[in-house]
Amino acid sequence: MSEEAAKEEKKWFGTLLSYASGSGGRLGVSVFFSMISLIAGLVPYYLVYRVLDRYISGNLDRAYVLHLSLTAVLAYLVKVVCFGISTGISHYVAFNVLEGLRLKVADVFLKAPLGDVTAHSIGEIKGVIVDKIEDIEPPLAHVVPEGAGHILLPVVCFIALAMIDIRVALAALLALPVGLIFMALTFKLSGKNMTKYQEANAHMSSMIVEYVEGIEVIKAFGKAGVSYEKFAGSIRNYRDFVIEWMESTWVTMKLAFAFMPATLLGVVPVSILLVGKGSMTVSRMALSVMLAMSMVISMAKIEIFSNGLRQMQYTVLEIQKLLNIKSLSEPWEEKLPDNYSIELKDVRFAYDDADGEVLHGINLSMKEGSFTALVGPSGGGKSTVAKLIARFWDVSSGSISIGGVDIKELNVTSLADIVSFVTQDNFLFSRSIMENIRLGKPDATDEEVFRAAKSACCDEFIRRLPDGYNTSAGEAGKRLSGGERQRIAIARMMLKNAPVVILDEATAFTDPENETKLQESIANLTRGKTLLVIAHRLSTIKNADRIVVLNDGLIEAEGTQEELMEKSPLYQRMWQAHIGAKNWAAGNANH
After folding, report:
1. Which of 64, 400, 455, 466 has its CA 20 to 30 A from that of 162?
2. What span, in angstroms and rounded, lies between the C-alpha atoms of 239 and 246?
3. Distance separating alpha carbons of residues 564 and 571, to the nearest angstrom
4. What's the pTM?
5. What dihedral angle (degrees, nearest 10) is formed by the CA atoms of 341, 345, 351, 354?
6. Coil vs helix vs strand at 37
7. Mind listing the pLDDT tens digit for each residue in 510-566?
8. Alpha carbon 155 to its chain's center
9. What is each CA distance from 500 to 59, 107, 536, in whole angstroms?
10. What is the pLDDT of residues 214-272, one digit of tens each?
């Protein structure tokens, strides 16, 4: 472990509290009330001792018993009230920390290169944001305040026992060293497996998400499919690992639980011996046993809480790995462009070093308000160019500028305001159609949403839905067809009204009867904007100001439709293939 990682591990708790402003002080108040609660719980024991002492001496009266009984009830009320205040504050802190962590992870993902985000599986990300962060709540809300109180209580009890008789106090600790040895062995064995446990859990979560998302395909092919076997295998492996891990620590853990809280093993015989010798009264012996029993409860709680605290530490360090994802650089002082022309200068890019470059020195200029189309064989780099302009990744070398300003000199949020990006795989949130469109402009009125929907040719089908615009799109928009999702995404883009628009196969699933109308709507609403369209359906971009042919990460040709039909053999073949496919589809439709 590096020195920096070791420091990070030591300060993990402070890092955790930093995600909820002011939580440290509130948690301290919670710990204080927890300690008061536990100490108040000792008062009845002392009062029982006083009653027993009076009874043995023969001068116990009803008024004295009533007075001490009322005092005991008051102490119990203090215990209950203080415990309620402590847990109330600690839960408030815990849920604020959870909120801060989730918002921080979301912010990190928003500002990180897309490749660094997609390097983590959906199951892993879901496991962190939903499950692991949620797992922090119980130990943070209970272990920290209650654990602090249960650490104080044995100390107070030991001091009280020492005041009664130091020999009884030392006898209470007789089994503690043995319990600590077994506890240390348990932690040592667990520590070796905790990382493996986290990995196994993340892998299982990822397989579950993959299985659920692909359930339609799996149902079509039955249980014999590869996905089902991967899903079932991950669960079996997780089960086998956990059972093996539990078996390896079962003996030491049980021995630790048996010896650590075994205060009575020493207190009872030593107290009886001292009473027999006349060195201790029976009432003091009773008080010693009650104090020792209080230590039993606290010592047992400390063992349980220590496991919870250790689990929380591993969880926080795991979350910290995601929070340490390097964000896209942002300037100290932002310079906004005064126009929206786009220029790529000698742009090279590789998704990772192992696979090599996918773009090899791209030089491309798009004037403000122009309509540029990128075409070419699959895998040629078209979508990569579009995503680099939106800065989903940073270029490996070269530069991309908007209005003469390098996009690295723009804040991520400013660039997002300038560029609208609609892909072929559009994601809709599980909320109403209205709110999904309104994401393009959160303060848009209903009328603005309706106009955008009409322009994107989706108003008609939306109004046919059960609740119209208030109909839920379903999880990931699965209640709608691919073409319907695309048109809603385009409506969202139109509502956003950004000066730079990128359509990455955005009309791929649009039905033929709406294609012409949708193309006219896009042309009208993007007039005066810098428009970049990536398309396989060449008929949709034949009127572009410039068509750029990309092949194997290089610009092979560029020009208008007429120019490319004359000078680019690749474009000619693509056009003939496209026309042939359209004629074939039309022929089938006529049969």
Report:
1. 64
2. 11
3. 6
4. 0.62
5. 170
6. helix
7. 556 656 656 666 666 677 788 898 877 777 788 888 899 888 888 888 888 888 888
8. 40
9. 94, 24, 21
10. 666 666 665 555 556 667 777 777 777 777 777 767 777 677 666 665 666 777 888 88
